[in-house]
Amino acid sequence: MKKKAIVTGITGQDGSYLAEWLLEKDYEVHGVSRHASVARHDRIEHLQDRITLHSADLLDEGSLISLLEQVQPDEFYNLAAMSFVPVSWRQPTFTAEVTGTGVLRCLEAIRRVNPQIRFYQASSSEMFGKVVETPQSETTPFYPRSPYAVAKVYGHWITVNYRESYDMFACSGILFNHESPRRGLEFVTRKITDGVARIKLGLQDELRLGNLKAKRDWGFAGDYVKAMWLMLQQDQPDDYVIGTGVTKSVEEFVDLAFSHVGLNWQDYVVVDPKFYRPAEVNLLLGDASKAQEKLGWQAETDLGGLVRMMVDADMARLSTSPAKLRLVA
Ligand code: NAP
Ligand code: F7E
Predict the structure, then answer these.
(1) Residue 58 CB–ligand 1 contact under 6 Å
(2) Are residues 127 and 99 in the same domain?
(3) What domain range is 275 assigned to?
(4) Per-state percent for the chain, helix, strand, coil, to nearest 5
């Protein structure tokens, strides 16, 4: 019989790649999509016939309980969140409810319906924030720097707590930044590759960015969802850091993206303090040696490959479908 998986956040970047991966592994895939007056399913349009979508919301525990009773899954991947860091300062309570206590609602629903369901929580390198050591591993203490990161710390520890309290198979993947042509346009990498393509095609003449000095460990989302799945296939539940082990500044990312289309970034990039954050995370660098040793996982795509993939996808999208200028690839 096919294994069944529930994926919250299936309409997001990671949800779409994880759904593809689970289908490849012959799972029956059930996605959670919250109600909206206009549904945005661009990232999973190509999968619509192969997955089942359910309406539920991380703010509504009853909806999660009904979903679990109906589907009776083997695995539950919680990828849903308010995931854009700047919005978390403007909507801190909402962020705490969705990104923080939303995790508790998932765990409670599982505990009530069937505690044997294996659970994956999408934790984040943002929890390391103002880092106390470099590189960051599973044993590095957290120092969150945004309401988003604080909410993720709650999600992480409630996952650990349910594992230890109720013997549940609950894992937390502490993933460093991962990107793709399906990344939301507000995140810096996609804002850059979309901007580069627009400038190259004559649709835009400048790119306004914030802190160019911030450094991130950027990988490819398609590689990272495999680590999520691997965590739930182990004999014992555990937490894992997932990253590439390479850190680069926003400025270096900008340089790579503009160079790929033969342009000099200094001619187009304008630093705009509007994009500075109340508290910044200056440097993130992941040590994924535990994942490599125990899961046999390592990043397959390097930063150069990622930048080329994203710029090329934005060039293709903007060249061929000017009517879809704001849509994801
Ligand atoms: P994303 O593209 O922003 O997707 C977030 C998903 O959550 C969307 O499908 C969204 O649905 C859904 N969602 C939001 N609020 C919800 C609610 N109340 N109930 C149900 N669903 C809700 O994020 P991503 O980049 O794929 O990231 C996936 C997860 O990994 C997130 O938890 C994120 O915080 C975490 N994470 C991401 C990274 C990264 O670099 N990408 C790194 C570490 C951790 P709508 O389509 O309806 O908005
Ligand atoms: O910012 C700087 C900004 O918004 C990266 C989320 O997926 O990864 C993501 O969080 C850096 C920051 O991602 C602009 O100040 C400069 O230092 O792409 P970002 P993030 O905040 O690192 C983690 C792991 C998650 O868990 C989150 O969900 O880039 N930056 N100029 C800018 N950032 C943005 N967005 N826009 C700019 O114009």
Answers:
(1) yes
(2) yes
(3) 185-217+247-281+303-326
(4) 45, 15, 40
